[in-house]
Amino acid sequence: MDSRSGNQIREDFLRFFEGKGHRRVHSSSLVPVNDPTLLFTNAGMNQFKDVFLGNERRDYTRAVSSQKCVRAGGKHNDLENVGFTRRHHTFFEMLGNFSFGDYFKKDAIAYAWELLTSNHDHCFGIDPSRLYVTIFEGDAKVPRDDEAEKFWIEIGVPKERIFGMGAKDNFWQMGDTGPCGPCSEIFYDMGVEAAEEAGVDKPFPLDDQRYVEVWNLVFMQFDRSSDGTLTPLPKPSIDTGMGLERIAAVLQGVLSNFETDLFTPLISRAEKLVEYDDRSIGSINAFMNVQEVEAYQRRSEASLRIIADHARAATFLISDGVNPANEGRGYVLRKILRRGIRHGRLLGQEKPFMHEMVFAVRDEMQVAYPELKETAERVAKVVLAEEQQFARVMETGSKKWDALIDEHREAQRVRFIQFVQSLELKHHRPLLTFAKEPAANRTGSQGPFIDQYLEGITIANIGRELPQEDAKQAIGFLHVIKGEPISGLKAFHIFETFGMPLDFMVDAARDAGIAFDMEGFERAKAEEQQRARASWKGGSQKSAAPVYRELAKTEFEGYSTLRVDGAKVLALVASGIGVPELKAGELGEVVLDATSFYADSGGQVGDVGWLYSGDHNLVVAEVSGATKPVQGVFAHKVRANQTIAVGDRVDTVVDAATRVATTRNHTGTHLLHAALREVLGKHVKQAGSLNDATRLRFDFSHFAGVAEEELREVEEIVNRQVMANSKVETLVDVPIDVAVNELGAMALFGEKYGEKVRVVTIGGPGGFSTELCGGIHTGATGEIGLVKIVGEGSVSSGVRRVEAVSGTGALDEFRRDFDVARVVGAFVGSGSGSSVESLTPAEALRARITAQEEEMKKLRRELDAVRMKSASASLSDAGASAVEVKGVKVLAQRVDGVEKAQMRELVDSLRIKLGSGVVVLGAAVDGKVSLIVGVTKDLTARVQAGKIVGQLAAQVGGKGGGRPDLAEAGGSDVGSLDSALQGAAEVVGGLLG
């Protein structure tokens, strides 16, 4: 058994390949950049996809990384298996080495074998006799990979340990088109003790549990076209993937990934947080036998593994900017979190605990991912809020679900009773008695209803009072109704109305021994069109049109100039299809070999302007924006003013005023970001932004509303920087390690960075603001003019949004404020006394409004008193106005203008005056009817207020109810109020019988 920790194994892998000339590349975000087909980053090659496709070039041809990955939705969905198998995870780390047209099969195989089997520094020293290798066995299009087999044999792998496998396992492709090729997988023999069937010794590859794939070497050597044709790539490449958790299990000599030191501390922490003690399992249920106790223990251990795994996934996802939501990535995160929380509840922990697991994850993984030190506090708050919200969901939704379960079981029981009665045999009496008795009343009974019936039939009746043939019929019928699923339509109603998670209902139904009608659930969901499925909505989006992928890169010159002359039209695109020309009036996109137009990126919108003809005189097209459909290719969105064709030369001219206004707002976001971190705390991170010519919008991680005084302080800090006219400096081609670790630059959520980056500093590196940014900025902060915050609010759980304006936008805002202040000043007046004159217009208006509200409250109280006095006076002779019905006094009166609270007081007063009787009051207020009925306590056994008011309400177009002694109702038919009151005595008489 190797003594290396998971952290050491990761580091050894990276160092081994650094020693082979590979560049160590940081793990990319779990949120894929510019790839709508992926829900989450799920493989090490994701961040190199554009390099493999030829859309991006880097200054190295060999790379090594440890990539954080999540597989919990869409095509790669391991969520439901997690915790119940040895090797499935939602979050995992993928170790990989990559070659971009440099070395190929021979070196890749040699490196892999050396790392795995050698005892040199940073190698793993695995016994070669426990390793097996697979190669592609070939098909109709691609021959057997004899080349790979040859290289494996050359490094010492016996031929009998090399196995040919089909395309499903050993041919890899990036998509329907593009790079693809055969692969070799390396397997480790965990030993017969890991076999699927205990003690059964099966040869490779017949036992998936015993023989574990630890490394996959992908040989990308073909380019697949849309018609399926495979063309050899001019520069074949290498993409490999090794699961850190799997290789840790191998090296640490354990059968399950969850037994490695990557998980055991987390599982131990989970045990403490949920107060789990396996020594007490046997006492949980006195009716459990040994097998049931063991099954319960297995489920409990699975729950602990689920909590540990899901805590890792949630911590990293939230740290990378994903927040719980009802769709897309946020919905998958919510599902992961709630599944973890639910398994804590299954272990008996009803209180929030999952947020504490965040700190356990931080403590275990901060060496490899130091950003967790900074984000853990914020992540824990997001998780705690989700736990609290889920608790509210469970409180209401669980009751509804339990009621649906009971309803389903009762329906089964009733059907069974009807079936037994239909037998019409004298022998059915014991069975019928058994079926009619509620299962909850049966001492010591275990399991779902139907299982109890089956047990009762087979044990109590066969061979005794019930003939065997009849018993068989009953058992057969029970099996039929046992297989009937719970209503998918009703389950969807609980899901939609109360937020009860689908996976909870499915699992709860399974635990109850009831099938779940998933088809009916999905049908109901589709009909209502209320929610999307738990898959990434971007998955249906198309990647960039093929025409863009074939183009040369656009040279962007817009950092230093607003105009580029003589740019060549490389392509024209209309509706996603390349066209030879755009005619006057047509909309499309123009790709040029050079441009001054900035394209949408980093929150800054693309420039607007014009394309001029080659003679510099005529406007060929108006440009409404620019994007980058693939890395490095700029597509200008245009409306043609005259015909423009591929090969034409044009001048790109950016609208200077719009560009300047946009850059003011962009630089303003950098100031705002730094100021928010200074005021609210270092947990604040950008979660999105939008900078155009009119305003800036900045989303950031923070868990509470920003107080008015905090916003004021942020605004003051920002404008102090503006007035200081600090230099805005851009450093280009800075190695990302230097930028982040030495200059302290902040990397922003959702952005993609290469090995060389642009760093924008305000106040110098390490000064007020230092960020990685590819956008365009002012030369100094003074050019911004002024920044005015105009709004703050919530975007989603744990994400806030601030909106602001700068430059002339700020001036317009102040003009509007001044106009309001002038109106306020005129309204408040200058002759209101010295105390008011010393106030600002806003303070004076607030004081005036407060005074008027107090005056209105006083007048309202006086008016209520007058109304009450008037109503009381009109009812002073209540006893004389009452009529007697069957020995009961009934008083019915109309009291218009009296509020409900006052009507209640009048009812109480009138009941006292009557001594014994029924009081009915009705009022018309604002076109609506109010009714209230009071019954003295001595009469509630004979007649109830709720029944009286119900009948009266029906006459005025309403309904109501209440206690036996007091009930209220409303209605909409004011014209029928008098007749309803006149008929009150008759209603009471009818109820008295």
UniProtKB/TrEMBL annotation:
Signal peptide range in chain numbering: none
Molecular function GO labels: alanine-tRNA ligase activity; aminoacyl-tRNA deacylase activity; ATP binding; tRNA binding; zinc ion binding
This protein's GO CC annotations: cytosol
Coiled-coil stretches: 842-869
Cofactor(s) needed by this chain: Zn(2+)
Record GO biological process: alanyl-tRNA aminoacylation; negative regulation of DNA-templated transcription
PROSITE patterns per UniProt: AA_TRNA_LIGASE_II_ALA (PS50860)
Enzyme kind, highest EC tier: ligase
Entry note: cofactor: Binds 1 zinc ion per subunit.
Binding positions for Zn(2+) per the UniProt entry: 666, 670, 773, 777
Free-text domain note: Consists of three domains; the N-terminal catalytic domain, the editing domain and the C-terminal C-Ala domain. The editing domain removes incorrectly charged amino acids, while the C-Ala domain, along with tRNA(Ala), serves as a bridge to cooperatively bring together the editing and aminoacylation centers thus stimulating deacylation of misacylated tRNAs.
Similarity section: Belongs to the class-II aminoacyl-tRNA synthetase family.
PANTHER family in the record: ALANINE--TRNA LIGASE, CYTOPLASMIC, ALANYL-TRNA SYNTHETASE
UniProt-recorded name of the protein: Alanine--tRNA ligase
